[in-house]
Design a protein that fits this description.
This protein is α+β, with helices and mostly antiparallel strands. The chain is 32% helix and 29% strand.
Length: 642
């Protein structure tokens, strides 16, 4: 029995099925993403998108989609579906009767007496998608035709008919290879059946429309190239595997075994925790032997500083107790981000997040001395970079606090822009940046010998922060911390950034402040799908992430609920309440499992509406969300045992 299923009435309802995506990802950075009806609604959707070395490793859509047609006794049935403006044609989704999401997506079609099934798997360590077709039942022989739609373009872009495209092919074993433009790898399309054939008949299909892009006001139409048709005869009980692989052709005789072994390696899903671990694994990419974290599928990038520091513990330590992988990813991140860590970055709090990541590693069970000996020098260099005269975007002031400012630039994770204007610029003293600054200094001093040169230099800075942080940010009348302070004074928008001031291991606010902050955050910002970015009582609050780009960007940081912030809330709550908070923590996370059949099927979304019913949005599979849920689960089990 599959863990996630959809029935016929759900699948044939396009308003339902087109809002639910399946996303498969592997270690190479390749992905397969489409809707459960197999109609692409985003420019990012593809049966095979791969990183291309010639174009800085950015992912490119090679195989956009694949139409299947069945012919029985001269009557042809097209199982594909595409959108052209307001028209869907063909409408093959009407034949779908069942969809199982695991261990791999499996779609069952019923056409009269024909029962036909296709299952989609992504090779774990190759740029290859494998599709198995089973003719479960048929009254006579059936001809299967496969029509590939090719794009060969950056996953952010769209393409159109052009004279530069190569429209020839190279015969390969049981198939054909295509390469539309210089710099791309060949796309080898092959069948497991030697009796199959390929008929070359190139044509551009114009005006393929992506409804999600249209709804958001983006460019939404493109032309896709269909080179020809693959054909094979099947009879009841037959199976066939179709392979699309970038690079070199594969041995077609091994395709069935490849598909079977791939599905076996994936294994079944028996619990929500299994699903979390599977998603965690899919978000770790290994490129040239170097492991990095993909911030989210499909359009978020790989190896981002903040997203990696915020998710690496969850995706490795809390998912699989894998300290080796944790260190490998962290080491690669440090090597790749020397400039951002020690010279300049537009997310000024991100380098300071390293201290929190190391504290998570120690809390998980790593030896304190070992962690400090390996990573302490890096953290000390980071701290030095915030002293006056090094970074242009942020610098320590005489009061010991950090002032961040770069005109027109949002210098924190709240970095949405509208028409080039930062929605939440927050120039000045930012509450979370200074909380992380204090935590990193204290963590470092705790590992330095008293009386050392470093200790003599940094202890007075620590004392300055302790003296000035709470008076700078605390507003006793309103009962919470300012989001940031500039020359005009405190900005008292009720936002979640103050959670960092009460959740770090070392904090410089009184216990009374902690209690008051948690009270008001719990009352106005906490939802069952994350923490709101702004209180609903604020006139700028936007509780629904819908509409055109302007409306969505306004909501992005002015009301949307972000799941990754729940980890900070739960961490403080467990410290305050102990095991008495276990039931509440379970309640706060159960909703995400209820949503596994929405948005990204089996995946954990980047953000949610701030208003009920809290519909999911953003990247369908988010590293930060997945890691936060694994972190909270780890805390639940830890305190349940206590």
């Amino acid at each position: 029995m599959a863990f996630l299923k959809f029935n016929k009435s759900e699948l044939v309802n396009l308003s339902y099925s087109l809002s639910r995506e399946i996303v498969l990802a592997n270690k190479t950075g390749a992905y397969c993403d489409t809707t459960i009806a197999t109609c692409n609604t985003r420019r990012y959707h593809a049966l095979l998108a791969v990183p291309v070395a010639a174009f800085e490793g950015y992912r490119h859509v090679l195989l956009s989609s694949l139409d299947e047609s069945l012919t029985l006794r001269g009557k042809r049935f097209n199982l594909g579906i595409h959108c052209y403006g307001d028209i869907y044609e063909p409408r093959g989704h009407k034949y779908i009767v069942d969809f199982d999401a695991d261990p791999v997506p499996c779609i069952t079609y019923k056409i009269g007496e024909i029962v036909f099934r296709k299952s989609i798997a992504l090779s774990p360590d190759e740029n290859q998608v494998l599709i198995q077709y089973e003719l479960v039942k048929a009254p006579a022989r059936v001809k299967l035709e496969l029509k590939p739609f090719l794009a060969f373009r950056n996953f952010h872009a769209l393409t159109s008919e052009n004279s530069a495209a190569r429209t020839d092919f190279i015969p390969v074993q049981n198939g054909a290879a295509f390469c539309m433009y210089e710099g791309f790898p060949s796309l080898n399309l092959q069948l497991s059946a030697s009796a199959g054939s390929y008929r070359h008949n190139p044509v551009w299909y114009k005006g393929v429309t992506y409804s999600d892009e249209m709804r958001r006001g983006f460019d939404c139409r493109e032309d896709l190239w269909v080179p020809g048709t693959f054909e094979v005869e099947m009879q009841s009980g037959d199976t066939l595997v179709f392979s699309a692989a970038a690079g070199d052709p594969v041995n077609a005789s091994t395709l069935k075994r490849r598909f079977t072994s791939t599905v076996k390696k994936i294994g079944p899903i028996t619990s929500f925790h299994d699903q979390l671990v599977r998603q965690a694994n899919s978000l770790i990419r290994e490129d040239g032997g170097r492991k990095r974290i993909v911030a989210g599928y499909c359009w978020l990038y790989t190896g981002l500083l903040r997203e990696t520091l915020g998710s690496v513990a969850g995706l490795t330590l809390y998912a699989r107790n894998d300290a080796k992988e944790f260190e490998e990813i962290l080491d690669n991140l440090i090597e790749d981000n020397k400039e951002r860590l020690t010279r300049r970055t537009t997310q000024v709090e991100s380098p300071l997040y390293l201290a929190i990541t190391l504290q998570q590693y120690i809390a998980w069970g790593a030896k304190d001395k070992y962690v400090w000996d390996k990573y302490g020098p890096v953290l000390k260099t980071i701290l030095e970079s915030y002293l006056p005269g090094i970074r242009q975007e942020v610098s320590m002031q005489p009061n010991g606090l950090l002032w961040a400012q770069m005109d027109g630039v949002a210098l924190t994770w709240m970095n949405a822009y509208i028409g080039g204007r930062a929605v939440t610029e927050r120039a000045g003293y930012q509450v979370e940046t200074n909380a992380m600054w204090y935590n990193a200094i204290c963590f470092t001093l705790a590992h330095e010998k008293k009386g050392s040169a470093f200790s003599k230099k940094w202890t007075p800075i620590k004392e300055l922060i302790e003296k000035n942080f709470q008076p700078m940010f605390w507003n006793a009348e309103l009962g919470f911390l300012a989001d940031y302070v500039d020359n005009g004074g405190q900005h008292m928008e009720l936002r979640p950034n103050q959670l960092w001031a009460v959740s770090t291991d070392y904090r410089c606010v009184d216990d009374e402040v902690v209690s008051e902050v948690m009270r008001i955050v719990n009352a106005e910002l906490v939802t069952r799908r994350g923490i709101r970015t702004l209180s609903p009582r604020d006139v700028r609050y936007k509780g629904v992430y819908e509409g055109n780009q302007l409306e969505r960007d306004e909501a992005y940081m002015n009301g949307c609920a972000w799941p990754f912030l729940l980890a900070q809330f739960c961490y403080v709550s467990f410290n305050m309440m102990g095991s008495a908070f276990v039931r509440r923590a379970e309640w706060l996370t159960e909703g995400f499992y209820e949503d596994l059949s929405k948005h990204g099927v089996g995946a954990f979304s980047e953000l949610y509406d701030g208003d009920p019913p809290h519909e999911p949005h953003g990247a369908v599979s988010s590293a930060m969300t997945t890691a936060a849920l694994l972190n909270i689960n780890w805390l639940i089990e830890k305190f349940r045992e206590d």
